[in-house]
Write a structure and sequence with these properties.
The complex is a heterodimer of chains A (145) and B (419).
Chain A: E1 3-4, E2 6-9, E3 14-20, E4 54-57, H1 66-75, E5 82-85, H2 90-101, E6 109-111, H3 114-118, E7 124-127, E8 132-135
Parallel strand pairs in A: 3-4, 4-5, 5-6
Antiparallel strand pairs in A: 1-8, 2-6, 3-7, 7-8
Chain B: H1 6-12, H2 18-34, E1 39-41, E2 44-47, H3 55-66, E3 74-77, H4 94-109, E4 134-135, H5 138-148, H6 159-166, E5 168-170, E6 184-187, H7 193-196, H8 201-213, E7 218-221, H9 229-242, E8 248-250, H10 260-263, E9 271-274, H11 277-286, E10 298-306, H12 308-318, E11 327-331, H13 333-342, H14 344-350, E12 353-357, E13 374-377, H15 380-390, E14 393-396, H16 399-408
Parallel strand pairs in B: 2-3, 2-4, 6-7, 6-9, 7-8, 10-11, 10-13, 11-12, 13-14
Antiparallel strand pairs in B: 1-5
Helix pairs in contact in B: 1-2, 2-3, 2-6, 3-4, 5-9, 8-9, 8-11, 9-15
C-alpha cells in the first residue's frame, strides 16, 4: 500500500510510529508543552505522548495559542516527527513556520484525510520529502489499510 | 498561491533588516496556508503574543528585536504574565518569572504600547469602522469586529506581531465584506424586557451564542435599547470562550446591523433560534461548576478588564462596607491611574479589594492554592476558564451578588426572574 500526502510544511524525509488520534484536539490545554503528553482529560488518547510520532490529526480545535504550544514542543525536542492533518490549521502550523525561521529542526506537515489516517494507526511510517508515505520494512504487521 | 508586491518581496529578502524580513515571511506563509491571494495593509494591531507560555516565545520575540524589527502600525499589548504596575503578587517560579519579564520587555522594545490590557478598545484604541486591522485576544477580536465594525480575523501568537511589524495581513476571512454577513438568527423577544436589560444576562447570552454559532456569524434580534458597551463586551467575551465566535451582529445596535435583513444580506437565515427561558436556565446552570456548596474562597471580576463605569458600579454597590473575602478586580493601568490620583484606589483597597493590573487571575498564578476552592464571578469568560486554569470551581452571579457575597463571606443570592 502506498499513499501520497500533500506537503503543507515541507521538510526532510522522516519516519515514526503513527499515532492516529480518534478525536479533534486543542494543543493549548490539550498537550503538555514540556513533555508532549496529551493532558486533556476528555480526549480519548489522554495519557499518550506525541513526541517522535507521525501524528495524525482528524481535526484541531483552534485556540490561538496552539502555535505557541507547538513551537515550545519543537524547542523542547518533544515535537512529533511529522504531522498529518485532515484540514490545514494555519494557527497550529504557524508554530512550525516560526520554528523554521528560528533555525530549529522542524518536522514536516502534510495533508491527509481523516479516513486515510485511520489505516495508519499504530504502524511504523516512512515519509518522503514529497509526501510519499510507506510502511517501514521493520513493521511486522500485515498490511491493514 | 499568494502573490507579493515588489515592495513586499524586497522586505522579505531583507532590505529593511532581518527582523522585518522574518515578520513578512511569516505573514506570507500564513497567507499561503489560509489560501489568501495577497496581503493587505492594516491600520493597527493588538498583540496577544506577549503572554508567556514557554521559553520559545521569549526567544522568538528577542530574535525579532535583535533583527531590528519595529512595529509599522499602532500596536497595543494584551495582558502579560506579570504585573509591572504593582498590586497583586504573581507566584511564578524564578526562571519563568525572568523569561516572562524578558518577553514583555522585548515586545515593548519593538514599539508596542505598554497598554497590557484585554480591553484595548476601552483604553483609547478604537479603529475606525471598515478599516482592516490585525487583532489578537478572542474578546478583543469579537469586540473590534462586532461593536467597532473594524475588520480582523482571529490573529494568534506570532502572527499578530508579524502583521504589526510588516503592516500587512493575509486577505481572507473577515477582512472580506461578503464573509461578514450573518447566517444564523437568534431571537430574544421571547424573554422578558427586565432580563434583556440586566447586566447578568449578557454573559449567559454569550455562552448560548458561542455554543449555537460555533464559528458561524449570528444576528441577535430583540436587544434594541437594552445594551450598553460593557454588556456587549461581556456578551462577546463569553461567546468567544464558549465557541469560535469572531463576529456577531445585534440588530439596531451594532454598526453592520441597522436591521436584521441587512445583517443577513437580504437572504433568509440558515437557522432561526427562538430563545426560551429554558435555554437561558440551562446556559446559566452550565456557567457554575461548584455544585450546591455555599463555600466561596474569593471573588474575581474584570474579564475583560473592568471599565471606569464598572469600577463606579462596584464602588456604589460596596457602599463603604468592608469585605470578608478577597475581591480581585482585574483591570488595566488606564483605569487604575485615575483611581490612584483621586485617592479612590486606596479607599477601595482598604475595603478589601485587590486590584490586579496588566494581567489577570486566570492567565498567571495569583489566586492562593487551596483544596476544593470556589471562585465567584460575574464574568462568563472567567466562569469558562477558571476551573481549568486555576483549579477553582466557579459560581456565576451578578455583580451585586458577587459584592454581597464578598461582604457576607458566603454565597448571597438575590431573587431574579430568569425568563
Amino acid at each position: 500500500m502506498e499513499l501520497t500526502a500533500e506537503p503543507l510544511i515541507p521538510g526532510a524525509p522522516t519516519s515514526g510510529l503513527c499515532l492516529a488520534l480518534t478525536a479533534p484536539i486543542s494543543f493549548w490545554g490539550g498537550v503538555d508543552p514540556r513533555s508532549g503528553t496529551i493532558i486533556d482529560a476528555r480526549h480519548p488518547e489522554c495519557g499518550r505522548n506525541i513526541a517522535g510520532t507521525v501524528l495524525a490529526l482528524p481535526g484541531t480545535i483552534g485556540s490561538s495559542s496552539a502555535s505557541a504550544v507547538l513551537l515550545e514542543l519543537v524547542h523542547a525536542g518533544k515535537a512529533p516527527a511529522a504531522l498529518l492533518m485532515d484540514e490545514p490549521d494555519a494557527i497550529l502550523l504557524l508554530g512550525l513556520i516560526v520554528a523554521r525561521e528560528m533555525g530549529w529542526p522542524t518536522p514536516p506537515a502534510f495533508r491527509l484525510s481523516a479516513e486515510e489516517q485511520k489505516a495508519l494507526s499504530g504502524r511504523r511510517i516512512m515519509l518522503s520529502a514529497t509526501g510519499r508515505l510507506a510502511f517501514a520494512a521493520a513493521d511486522g504487521e500485515t498490511s491493514g489499510g | 498561491m499568494v502573490e507579493l508586491s515588489a515592495d513586499e518581496r524586497a522586505v522579505a529578502a531583507g532590505e529593511r533588516g532581518e527582523g522585518a524580513a522574518m515578520a513578512l515571511r511569516i505573514v506570507a506563509e500564513a497567507a499561503r496556508l489560509m489560501g489568501a491571494p495577497r496581503l493587505i495593509p492594516i491600520a493597527s494591531a493588538h498583540i496577544d503574543g506577549a503572554l508567556y507560555h514557554g521559553d520559545s516565545g521569549t526567544l522568538f520575540a528577542e530574535r525579532l528585536v535583535e533583527g531590528g524589527a519595529r512595529v509599522a502600525v499602532r500596536a497595543s499589548l494584551n495582558v502579560g504574565a506579570l504585573t509591572p504596575a504593582g498590586c497583586a503578587a504573581v507566584r511564578l517560579p524564578p526562571h519563568e518569572h525572568e523569561m516572562a519579564r524578558r518577553m514583555m520587555r522585548a515586545y515593548e522594545a519593538m514599539g508596542c504600547e505598554p497598554s497590557w490590557t484585554c480591553a484595548p478598545y476601552q483604553a483609547g484604541h478604537r479603529p475606525v469602522a471598515g478599516t482592516d486591522v490585525a487583532w489578537g485576544e478572542s474578546n478583543a477580536v469579537v469586540f473590534c469586529n462586532s461593536v467597532l465594525g473594524a475588520r480582523t480575523n482571529r490573529y494568534g501568537d506570532f502572527l499578530d506581531i508579524a502583521c504589526a511589524i510588516s503592516g500587512r495581513a493575509p486577505d481572507y476571512g473577515l477582512h472580506r465584506r461578503q464573509n461578514r454577513l450573518a447566517s444564523l438568527l437568534i431571537d430574544t423577544t421571547g424573554l422578558s424586557p427586565e432580563l434583556r436589560r440586566s447586566d447578568v444576562f449578557y454573559p449567559v447570552l454569550g455562552t448560548i451564542l458561542g455554543r449555537r454559532a460555533g464559528s458561524a456569524i449570528a444576528v441577535i434580534d430583540g436587544l434594541r435599547d437594552c445594551t450598553t458597551e460593557d454588556r456587549l463586551k461581556a456578551l462577546g467575551a463569553a461567546a468567544a470562550s464558549a465557541g469560535g465566535v469572531g463576529l456577531f451582529h445585534v440588530a439596531g445596535v451594532t454598526p453592520e446591523a441597522p436591521d436584521v435583513a441587512t445583517a443577513l444580506g437580504g437572504e433568509p437565515p440558515r437557522e432561526r433560534i427562538m430563545l426560551t427561558p429554558g435555554d437561558v436556565a440551562a446556559a446559566l446552570a452550565g456557567l457554575s461548576t461548584a455544585g450546591g456548596t455555599g463555600r466561596i474562597d474569593a471573588v474575581a471580576i474584570g474579564s475583560p478588564h473592568l471599565s471606569p463605569a464598572e469600577v463606579d458600579e462596584l464602588e456604589r454597590l460596596l457602599a463603604g462596607r468592608r469585605l470578608r473575602l478577597p475581591l480581585y478586580a482585574n483591570t488595566g493601568r488606564h483605569v487604575l491611574a485615575p483611581l490612584e490620583r483621586s485617592g479612590r484606589r486606596k479607599a477601595l483597597e482598604q475595603a478589601g479589594i485587590v486590584f490586579v493590573v496588566d494581567t489577570c487571575v486566570v492567565v498567571t498564578p495569583i489566586l492562593p492554592e487551596l483544596d476544593g476552592a470556589v471562585l465567584m464571578t460575574n464574568s462568563g469568560k472567567f466562569a469558562h476558564y477558571a476551573p481549568g486554569n486555576t483549579g477553582y470551581a466557579v459560581i456565576y452571579g451578578s455583580l451585586s451578588e458577587c459584592v454581597e457575597s464578598a461582604v457576607a463571606g458566603r454565597l448571597v443570592r438575590e431573587p431574579r426572574q430568569w425568563s
